[in-house]
Amino acid sequence: EAGVTQFPSHSVIEKGQTVTLRCDPISGHDNLYWYRRVMGKEIKFLLHFVKESKQDESGMPNNRFLAERTGGTYSTLKVQPAELEDSGVYFCASSLLGSGSGDTQYFGPGTRLTVL
Amino acid sequence: DQQVKQNSPSLSVQEGRISILNCDYTNSMFDYFLWYKKYPAEGPTFLISISSIKDKNEDGRFTVFLNKSAKHLSLHIVPSQPGDSAVYFCAASVGTYKYIFGTGTRLKVLA
Question: Using one digit for the tens of pLDDT, what is the confidence trace for A38-58?
Answer without folding.
Answer: 987 899 999 999 999 999 999
